[in-house]
Specification:
Length: about 290
C-alpha cells in the first residue's frame, strides 16, 4: 500500500513537472515569437495575434474547456481526469506567467535559438505527461475523436491537425491587413517536425530498459540475486558450450537502467567467467513493466 502511494505521488510530481516545462516553453519561447507548432497553444497564439482582445493564456483556457467538454461527451472515459487536470494547469500556469513575468518582446534576437528551446521544453514536457498516462488535452482530444470516427490512427490525426495549425502561421494579420510571413511559418513547421522526433526520442529514453542474456556456471547465486535484490523474474535455459562441450545455464531477464548496473557488477562478482549479452530496449510488455493492454 505504501509503495502504491509512493508511485502515485511520484507520478503526479512528474506530471506537474511536464506541465511546467510545457508552460515555460510556450510562454517564454513560442508565444513571443509567434511559433505555432501545433496544439491548443498554437491556436491560442494565432488567435491572440489576430484578435488581441484576449491574451494567449485566456484563449488556451477557453479552447481547452470547450475541447474537454466535447471530449467527455464524445469519448466518455477516454477523456480522463488527468487530461482535464493537465490542460487546465497548463492554461493556469501561462496565465500566472503573464501576471508575474510580463513579456512585450522575445527574450533574444535569435529566433532559431528560441525555437530550439521551445521545441525541447514542450517536447520533453509532452513526453513526461504521456509517460504518466495523461495528455495536455487540446489536439490530443481532437485526434482521439478523429480516430473514433475515421480510419486514422491517433498519430496521423494529431500530425494532420498540428500541421494545419503550423501552416496558418505563414499568414500574418496586422493593422495593415493580411500579409505573408514566411519566416515564422517556416520556423513553426520546422518546430513541428522537430517536436515529433523529440517526443518519440524522449519517450523511448524514459522507457529504456536493459535485456540480459547471462551464460554462467553458477546460476543459483545469480538467479537468487535477480529474484531477491533486483525483484524481477528470469527465464532459465539449459545449454552447453559448442567448443568445450561443458554444461552451461542461460539466464534471461530484463531490468531498468539503474538495476542493470547492479546486476552486471554482481554477476561478475559471483562468476568472473560469465558471458553476458546486454541490449537496450524500450518496449517490454508484461508484469512489472508496461501493461500490454496499452
Amino acid at each position: 500500500m505504501i509503495n502504491k502511494y509512493r508511485i502515485t505521488i511520484k507520478n503526479w510530481m512528474f506530471m506537474n513537472l511536464g506541465v511546467l516545462l510545457m508552460a515555460i516553453g510556450i510562454y517564454f519561447f513560442k508565444a513571443p515569437n509567434g511559433f505555432a507548432t501545433g496544439g491548443v497553444s498554437g491556436v491560442a497564439i494565432i488567435l491572440a495575434n489576430v484578435f488581441p482582445v484576449l491574451t494567449q493564456s485566456v484563449y488556451m483556457m477557453i479552447i481547452n474547456i470547450l475541447l474537454l467538454i466535447v471530449g467527455i461527451l464524445v469519448l466518455g472515459k477516454e477523456c480522463g481526469i488527468l487530461t482535464i487536470y493537465c490542460s487546465l494547469m497548463l492554461s493556469l500556469e501561462n496565465w500566472l506567467f503573464e501576471i508575474l513575468v510580463p513579456l512585450s518582446a522575445p527574450l533574444t534576437s535569435y529566433p532559431l535559438l528560441e525555437l530550439v528551446y521551445a521545441v525541447l521544453l514542450t517536447g520533453v514536457g509532452s513526453a513526461i505527461i504521456f509517460k504518466c498516462k495523461a495528455s495536455s488535452g487540446g489536439t490530443d482530444i481532437v485526434a482521439l475523436i478523429l480516430k473514433k470516427h475515421t480510419s486514422m490512427n491517433v498519430g496521423t490525426a494529431l500530425l494532420c491537425t498540428d500541421f494545419l495549425i503550423a501552416a496558418m502561421t505563414f499568414v500574418r494579420f496586422g493593422e495593415e491587413g493580411i500579409s505573408i510571413d514566411p519566416q515564422t511559418g517556416l520556423f513553426s513547421l520546422l518546430g513541428l517536425f522537430a517536436k515529433v522526433f523529440v517526443v518519440d526520442d524522449i519517450i523511448d529514453s524514459i522507457n529504456l530498459c536493459k535485456s540480459f542474456t547471462i551464460i554462467t556456471t553458477k546460476p543459483a547465486a545469480v538467479t537468487d540475486f535477480i529474484l531477491k535484490d533486483i525483484k524481477h523474474s528470469a527465464t532459465i535455459i539449459s545449454a552447453y558450450g559448442a567448443y568445450t562441450q561443458e554444461g552451461k545455464t542461460v539466464i534471461m531477464t530484463v531490468c531498468r537502467r539503474s538495476e542493470a548496473i547492479r546486476l552486471r557488477k554482481k554477476v561478475y562478482e559471483i562468476d568472473p567467467g560469465a558471458f553476458m549479452i546486454i541490449t537496450k530496449t524500450s518496449e517490454i510488455m508484461g508484469k512489472g513493466f508496461r501493461d500490454n493492454t496499452n
